[in-house]
Fold this protein.
Amino acid sequence: MVITDFLERNARLYGSEVALVEINPSEERDAAVTWRDFSLIENARPDAPYRREMTWRDFDRKANRFANLLLSRGLSRGTKVGILLMNCLEWLPLYFGILKAGCIAVPMNFRYSSDEIAYCLGLADVEVLVFGPEFVTRMDPIMDRIPGVKMLFFVGREIPAYAEDCCRLVTFCSSSAPPVALTDDDDAAIYFSSGTTGFPKAILHKHRSLISACMTEQHHHGQTRSDVFLCIPPLYHTGAKMHWFGSLVSASKAVLLRGVKPEWILRAVTEEKCTIVWLLVPWCQDLLEAIETGRINLSHYYLDQWRLMHIGAQPVPPSMIHRWLKIFPHHQYDTNYGLSESIGPGCVHLGVENITKVGAIGKPGYGWQARIVDEHGHDVTGDEVGELIVKGPGVMVCYYKNPLATAEVLKDGWLYTGDMARSDADGFIYLVDRKKDVIITGGENLYPVQIEDFLRHNPKVHDVAVIGLPDKRLGEIAAAIIQVADGETCTEEEINAFCRELPRYKRPRKIIFDQVPRNPTGKIEKPLLREKYRSDRLVEAQTTH
């Protein structure tokens, strides 16, 4: 069985039922804001209707038409086809069309610069690119730098001269399934690493990875046909899409919301009767602040059907979940852990039944194994810290065209995650830090995540990142970059006083008030912070809020 079989089954059995909904909240954008300033999710089409929907039958037919378009152009099995689109109703049918043609889907980050787009197209050997109007100004400068891209299909109006009208071309193609036999051993997709340590690496997955993600997600959250999944994160990343795979398996509706304002989220939950909402930590924080300050009145929304608040992509502050459950005591809560190299979330999973273990990422997920090992690959004992390694059907094939990097992380079928972790007496795994982020100060190992988690308990702290700064005597010291909560003021003295509860060696030696940058998947962009504060330009006069 391959993932496209689920789509064809849903079209056959539930063809007239709604599969996907796109919601476009309207908001005027400052004309000075460029794509570089885009937030995680953008309503980049202000002229789009507020709501669009698609049935399972239309979903399957659109996927078939695009697959047949690709085949009509002579594309062979294994051809790489890139997707450079904002979240929209067309995204998933195009993705499935690529798979149905036997091609390899290559989703791309919508915040890539021109240079990054050109780099990733070349790295993945992309021959066909589907892109939207938001990317024209980034495509124009690189047209002479992407000779490997033979075809460019455009989704939208005002088609550039160098591209073809995808929406028009597919109308001339058959809506019947193409005659392409697929197996779980066929290559399916190339995803890119988050790029927090430099230019992204290309991650190759087979169809078995995609089907594994379907089964893992549905097993963990038990989606039924009555569930409605609210999807906000970008579809180019494994996280959002792999959680949506639970809706695919259960043939249930999903809502693509192009916006993250608390009011928009609650309105979508109300109007579409959403039962499962996947949030990132900043969005959850924003919702809580809006409710606790009285800016949002929950009585204005219908939320009784909302059963599961699912959160991930970064460490989750336990205090935040406790605040959430005071407001929504009937909610199930879940989090899980995964990497693009392990086809997204689910290789480690907390479980809705383990609310008492908030703070842990959980135990090995459905179909997965996990271990914590020392530098020699031997299992650590007790609550010792070691590197988390995982094994399962969703592990990547390789870093495409990078055998050395592949050999560093794939050993005897085990994926070395680069994350440092420990486990408790019950076998629950807790993340400690990224292996590369460990700060060695005076011979002591400091794990920034532990310090970050402590500081997030301070009600004046909205977000925090801890990095190492060079020190002549100690080698490195811990510096805390603190983003103060809206409406609050905070001083270095207050933070230092708060940190007295930490062991002395764990206390940050430098406090910097600044914004904490995060990438589209919610991860702190620590390389940016290191570049900013490790240089000779180290800021003494910090921003206060």
Notes: Residues 28-44, 536-545 have pLDDT under 50 and may be disordered.
